[in-house]
């Protein structure tokens, strides 16, 4: 960036250097609070619309930097050093010990800051390609706690990582869409900013962001100034293209963003087109052609005289094609066009479903407290759930097999249940707390707590948390055995995947879902966007097999309760209605009556 003819550091670079410093501190084993302060500062810098370099000039107000939330005295000095010298003392010192490419290693499964530091000191490995070579050459075998198994796991992790780079989790993409939208909105004459593409369809990952912008500033003849504004947003890492009404750029994390500024008259057509999916659009266009119409991103036109039939709203376009408006989550060419036609024709059967919404959810049956690996108390979780309008929750902390979470043995599980019931009493019926546990499914399908303990709990979620590498037959038998335990009321983590991080464990899911349906064990969709155990196809299959479904957040802190939003999105993509999901039941009693009866 140029300022008064000088080339100075821009906010994106300052943010990147602070963020790298945070990760280097982490690798160096330093205090998590210190690490977090650098991360927070990086985020704050990235969001500033004023270039911070201008605030470090000798004649500028020394307090201006401090006015930014997340920037204290020390951080302000760091920023001044970065702008003046291109680095700062702490970063320079850490870089005598470590390298910035080591940050990428932290994204691999099983790779924490300590391991990264050890790989560096023992093998001078600082990036993924070198690590892969070292693993293949067997060099890791000489290191402590890194046997053949670790090496195999790591190589698989590296392969997954390479396969997954280029896509982004929906929650993270949404957060960026929100931040970019707020910055675009600062330009006068902007009215609406709508994410289209896979984000609007609610796919669990997105390849890039497609943002549609309308308002007086986007009308032809005046749009150029708005385009300039977008092309100069402070978040931009690299400008890819700037056209008449379109700007494409990438962010620091390499997420690409396509922004289109559109006249209101064609907004509906553009929204329809850029929402996709491609297959949905292709089929829709064929339908238009059969009716003597042609559909583009500008309008639905009559072929014979080019008269505009519909363009301003999606509703008009679908209706003009004899279809009801289709919720974006369904637009995958998987039967939604036929269903929308049936709905439009007023047929009783085969129409579009009334999809479940967040407002339908009355309870959350899987969450943790600081008794194990959660961050909050029972009371905190209950108050936060109440504030979110829930009528009932189950507290389900871990069992002892999961030692790294400080999992509970039988005595602790019962003592914890008593405390949950105590809080339930204190809350005087404002919200119902169910006493539960997330009990580990051990290697051969045994549950990790005594039956006599489980018998005293309201909600038993049984989950696989270990030995993910069993062959599919063995894993299937293991989970089936856990379902046969009469205390199992909910099957948690039915695939064990971590989105973009760890593949599902090998299992015959259809067999498991069928048996769960027969036994009346509810199957959980995990709403945490990093987990999302079941995908849309699994969820659709579960419904067809007659499974009872629940959607839970697996919250480990109060703000995680908001994960429910991402779970709902996937349920919608699976065509599910409120009636398909048990935790839409109005009360805890109604919910319990729909779960597998206690033995
Ligand atoms: P992504 O970004 O890979 O997660 O998936 P989308 O669906 O967001 O795909 P993207 O960003 O390439 O395009 C956004 C929408 O634009 C897409 O869903 C439908 C429409 N579109 C893009 N290219 C084509 C095309 O070649 N033909 C048709 N019919 N539609 C297209
Ligand atoms: Ca896209
Ligand atoms: Ca795109
Ligand atoms: Zn859990």
Distance N terminus to C terminus? 70 Å
Strand content: 5-15%
Helix segment tally: 23
CATH topology of the largest domain: TIM Barrel
Task: Find the structural class using helix and strand composition.
Answer: alpha/beta
Q: For the largest sheet, list the strands in their spatial order.
A: 13-14-15-16-17-18-19
How many β strands by DSSP? 19
Average predicted local confidence, pLDDT: 93
State the CATH architecture of the largest domain: Alpha-Beta Barrel
Number of domains: 4
- Taking pLDDT < 50 over at least 5 consecutive residues as the criterion, the unreliable ranges are none
Major beta sheet summary: 7 strands, parallel
- By CATH reckoning, the class of the largest domain would read Alpha Beta
Shape: globular
CATH homologous superfamily placement of the largest domain:
Metal-dependent hydrolases
Radius of gyration over all CA atoms, rounded: 27 Å
Specify the helix fraction band: 40-55%
What hetero molecules are bound to the protein chains? Answer: 2'-deoxyguanosine-5'-triphosphate, calcium ion, zinc ion
In short:
The protein has 599 residues and is an alpha/beta fold. The chain is built from 23 helices and 19 strands. The strands form five sheets. A seven-stranded parallel sheet has the order 13-14-15-16-17-18-19. It has a five-stranded mixed sheet with strand order 4-6-9-8-7, sandwiched between helices. A three-stranded antiparallel sheet has the order 10-11-12.
């Amino acid at each position: 960036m140029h300022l008064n003819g000088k080339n100075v550091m821009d906010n994106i670079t300052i943010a990147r250097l602070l963020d790298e410093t945070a990760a280097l501190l982490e690798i160096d084993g330093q205090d998590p609070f210190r690490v977090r302060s650098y991360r927070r500062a990086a985020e704050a810098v990235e969001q500033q619309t004023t270039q911070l370099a201008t605030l470090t000039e000798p004649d500028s107000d020394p307090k201006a930097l401090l006015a930014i939330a997340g920037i204290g005295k020390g951080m302000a000095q760091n920023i001044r050093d970065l702008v003046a010298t291109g680095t700062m003392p702490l970063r320079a010192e850490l870089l005598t010990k470590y390298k910035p490419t080591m940050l990428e290693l932290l994204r691999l499964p099983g790779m924490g800051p300590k391991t990264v530091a050890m790989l560096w000191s023992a093998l001078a490995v600082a990036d993924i390609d070198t690590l892969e070579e070292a693993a293949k050459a067997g060099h890791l075998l000489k290191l402590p706690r890194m046997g053949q198994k670790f090496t195999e796991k790591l190589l698989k992790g590296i392969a997954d990582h390479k396969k997954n780079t280029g896509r982004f989790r929906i929650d993270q993409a949404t957060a960026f869409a929100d931040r970019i939208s707020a910055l675009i909105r600062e330009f006068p004459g902007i009215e609406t900013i709508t994410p289209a593409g896979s984000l609007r369809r609610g796919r669990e990952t997105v390849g890039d962001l497609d943002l549609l912008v309308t308002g007086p500033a986007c009308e032809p003849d005046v749009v150029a100034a708005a385009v300039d504004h977008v092309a100069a947003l402070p978040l931009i890492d690299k400008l890819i293209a700037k056209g008449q009404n379109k700007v494409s750029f990438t962010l620091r994390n390499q997420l690409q963003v396509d922004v289109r500024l559109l006249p209101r008259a064609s907004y509906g057509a553009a929204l329809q087109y850029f929402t996709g999916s491609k297959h949905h659009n292709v089929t829709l266009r064929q339908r238009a052609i059969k009716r003597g119409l042609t559909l583009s991103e500008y309008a639905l036109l009559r072929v014979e005289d080019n008269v505009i039939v519909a363009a301003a709203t999606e509703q008009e376009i679908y209706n003009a094609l004899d279809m009801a408006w289709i919720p974006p989550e369904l637009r995958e060419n998987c039967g939604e066009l036929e269903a929308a036609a049936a709905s439009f024709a007023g047929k009783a059967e085969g129409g579009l479903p009334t999809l479940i919404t967040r407002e339908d959810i009355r309870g959350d049956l899987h969450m943790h407290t600081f008794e194990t690996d959660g961050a909050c108390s029972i009371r905190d979780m209950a108050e936060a759930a109440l504030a979110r309008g829930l009528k009932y929750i189950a507290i389900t902390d871990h069992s002892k097999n999961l030692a790294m979470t400080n999992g509970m043995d039988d005595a602790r599980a019962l003592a914890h249940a008593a405390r949950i019931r105590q809080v339930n009493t204190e809350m005087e019926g404002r919200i119902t707390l169910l006493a539960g546990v997330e009990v580990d499914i051990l290697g051969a399908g045994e549950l990790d707590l005594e039956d006599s303990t489980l018998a005293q709990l309201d909600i038993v979620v049984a989950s696989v948390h270990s030995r993910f590498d069993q062959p599919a037959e063995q894993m299937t038998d293991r989970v089936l055995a856990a379902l046969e335990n009469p205390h199992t009321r909910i099957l948690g983590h039915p695939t064990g995947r971590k989105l973009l991080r760890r593949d599902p464990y090998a299992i015959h899911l259809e067999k498991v879902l069928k048996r769960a349906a027969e036994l009346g064990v509810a199957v959980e969709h995990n709403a945490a966007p990093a987990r999302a155990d079941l995908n849309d196809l699994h969820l659709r299959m579960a419904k067809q097999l007659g499974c009872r479904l629940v959607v839970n957040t697996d919250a480990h802190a109060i703000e995680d309760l908001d994960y429910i939003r991402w779970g709902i999105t996937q349920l919608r993509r699976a065509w599910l209605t409120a009636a398909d999901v048990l935790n839409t039941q109005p009360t805890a009693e109604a919910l319990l009556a729909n779960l597998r009866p206690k033995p």
